[in-house]
Amino acid sequence: MELQLGFSPCPNDTFIFDAMLHRKIDTEGITFIPVIEDVESLNQKALQQTLAITKLSYHAFAHLVDKYILLDAGSALGFGVGPLLISKNKIENIENKIANLKIGIPGKLTTANFLLNIAFPQAQQKVEMVFSEIENALINEEIDLALIIHENRFTYAAKGLHKVIDLGSFWEQKTGSAIPLGGIVMSRKYDKETLNKVNRIMARSVEFAMKNPLSSAKFVKQHAQEMEESVMVQHIQLYVNKYSLNLGVEGRKAVSTLLDSAVAQGLILPLTHPIFID
C-alpha cells in the first residue's frame, strides 16, 4: 500500500519522519510518499482532502474533525513552544494600538493565528504570508507586527527585533495546558486497522529518531537549506518531545482544551465526531 504523507520542511518534521520514509524501521508493508510543503499549504490541502495523512495546524483540525482523525504520534505541542508576536521597534500599550497595525501572519488556519484571535480579537489588519518571509517583511517595514513560528523564534532577537508577546505563554497562563501547535491526522475513509497501523509506524519512527538523532541529519539539512546547524538542533530539541511519541492523557487534554475554546469562541460548531484514534 502507498500512502501520501504531508509534512513541512521544518527540522522537527523531517527529523521524526525520516525513519519511516527511508525504511529504517518496519513500515508493515506501507510505502509513504512525501508531500513537503509549508504548513498553511498543508492546511489548505487538508481542506480539499487531497492527502491520506498530513501534518495539520490544530486550528485547521478544528474545522476538519469530521474528515480526519488525530493520531497519537507525531504531534508538536508543549510548554514554551508557542508563536511570538514581534515588532521592529518597541511598542507600548499594544492593546490600544493593535487594531490599527498591519500584522503578517503565517496563514489564517494556523494555530498561531488562532491564539492571536484569542489574545487580541481587535486585531483585524492581517496579511497572510509564507512563514519564512514574515521576518524580512517586518524588517522592511511592509508590516507593523509579525506573528512568527518555527525557527524564527531563534533568530529574531539577533536581527534587532523585539518580542511583543509570547502567545504560547499567554495560552499556558490562561488554560494551564500545553499549547497544541500541529498534529498528524489521517483521513476517516480508512478502516480502523489501517489507522492503527499508521499510528504504530509513526510512533516507531519518532522513537527511532529520538534514539538515533544523527541518523536523519542528511535529510534534515537537505530541507532546512539555509538554516544554521545550531538553529536546526534547537528547533528539534524544542518541538520534539514526549508528546511527539504519544500524546498521552495530558496531550489529549491540551488538544481538547483548544478545540473546546474554538467552540466557545464561535469559530467552529460543537464537535460530533471522536477526535482521537482508539
Structure overview:
This protein has 278 residues and is of the alpha/beta class. The protein has helices at residues 11-21, 39-48, 58-62, 94-97, 111-119, 131-139, 152-155, 167-175, 192-211, 217-224, 229-239, 242-245, 248-264; strands spanning 2-7, 31-36, 53-57, 68-70, 76-78, 84-87, 103-105, 126-128, 145-148, 162-166, 179-187. Helix 5 links the parallel strand 7 and strand 8 (126-128). Helix 1 (11-21) packs across helix 9, helix 1 (11-21) packs across helix 10 (217-224) and helix 5 crosses helix 8 (167-175). The radius of gyration is 18 Å and the shape is globular. The mean pLDDT is 92.
Mean pLDDT: 92
Helix fraction bin: 40-55%
Terminal CA distance reads 22 Å
**CATH class categorisation of the largest domain:** Alpha Beta
Q: CATH homologous superfamily of the largest domain, by name?
A: Periplasmic binding protein-like II
Biggest beta-sheet profile: 6 strands, mixed
Which ranges are low-confidence, i.e. pLDDT below 50, for 5 or more consecutive residues? none
H/E element order: EHEHEHEEEHEHEHEHEHEHHHHH
Quickly count the domains: 2
What is the SS-derived class?
alpha/beta
In total, the number of strands is: 11
Form type: globular
Could you name the CATH topology of the largest domain? D-Maltodextrin-Binding Protein, domain 2
